[in-house]
Write the structure tokens for this entry.
Amino acid sequence: MHSTNLLLEEPIRMASILEPSKTSFFPAMTKIVGTLGPKSRSVDTISACLKAGMSVARFDFSWGDAAYHQETLENLKLAIKSTKKLCAVMLDTVGPELQVVNKSETTLSLEENGTVVLTPHHGQEASSSLLPINFSGLAKAVTPGATIFVGQYLFTGSETTSVWLEVSEVKGDDVVCIIKNTATLAGSLFTLHCSQIHIDLPTLSDEDKDVIRKWGAPNKIDFLSLSYTRHAEDVRQAREFLSKLGDLSQTQIFAKIENVEGLNHFDEILAEADGIILSRGNLGIDLPPEKVFLFQKSALHKCNMAGKPAVVTRVVDSMTDNLRPTRAEATDVANAVLDGSDAILLGAETLRGLYPVETISTVGRICAEAEKVFNQDLYYKRTVKYVGEPMTHLESIASSAVRAAIKVKASVIICFTSSGRAARLISKYRPSMPVLSVVIPRLKTNQLRWSFTGAFEARQSLIVRGLFPMLADPRHPAESTSATNESVLKVALDHGKASGVIKSHDRVVVCQKMGDSSVVKIIELED
């Protein structure tokens, strides 16, 4: 399976580029996060998205109330049941997001070199000369010459539907700006981003806490996307808040890096968070265009070496309205994979785009092609060197399992895990074959009732590159030494055969615990 993988520096035969891609049970090792919204919330559409390769569903609370998102979530549950495909749930907070309030949805035409006033919202109507905003402290935060970007939320950044403003003067609470390009703003909600300016608002607002408490906790969300993370303390405070909500103590926090402030504290944020989302839309405004790729490569490398999932956003904006991505976008998706991204996050493309299913399918195919030329050998050596010696026990087992799988040309790695940590460490070394993460449920009690853990851990691997989870039956012994009896291993092998990733005479590397020892073994399958 992986023998067709090329090293990037090897010459690629032109004829091989024209060969049709082979279909696979796992469309790509790189995961796809889809934002569910108006164009992607019916059971049929969500089912099609799951079949196309979506493994995490994102619920963005920047718009829509809890009842609306609950209805979408119920549809997701029905789609999961009908397709028999696992899908995790991510709640995306609003955070200190500045918004222009246009309740009457008046179409606003802004002319280049004209002026417009940004003012705190007190019920005024938006117009081409006055933009009410949801923040009263903007006048204190900006100075003349500062750059402000206003655009339709989740749009493409197209210069005809978003506008650049330059602050000319501050008058009391009002900010007077010069319009730098002609644009038409349509709709009820536009975001406002001030380049490289600190906004004195909490990262986790009272409204966010209310949504998490009333919607996130009852639905036991798998991931919390913490918008506008600027310091490690933001993550610590969010974790403390989640820990008080019993059902969310296991929820993973993904820090969303959206501005220079978050970039400056990236290392400490990475140490505290469970994963990172590179929000390139806002970062592309805060950073000079020529610096964006440098941040992406540096941030993804740091995440890879830390063994924490990294998610890249804003890759195929044009597919919001078009069936095919631009050449630059297709190349951008592939480069995100080659740079080390675990997942691609789709926003407007699936939320209100015309082609949500086709977008997921297209991105998946591009990811799969990029994975074929990923230089696994170089990556493995670089990671081992970075980790250094002596390795921890788990790290040693994980790296050995990947090394063995590559040497014997295994078709799959099967990893038994209860917390998911062992499987994530195997993924850290980027094996070129899928990793079946067999989550062994654990029995726990709160003095009132007994319950099994495992579902959280299984779903949380759905955002990690190359991990494909299955929840084991707790009645089957994980420590079984034979692959032929009724054990979890047999169930995992049968699952691999049924999905087409394991065939007769294939070699399989198994990573499991036996008593107090961790074992890596190689199995050669019979007919």
Confidence is low (pLDDT under 50) at residues 1-6, 153-157, 480-486. Residues 393 and 517 are 10 Å apart (CA to CA). The longest helix spans residues 66-83.
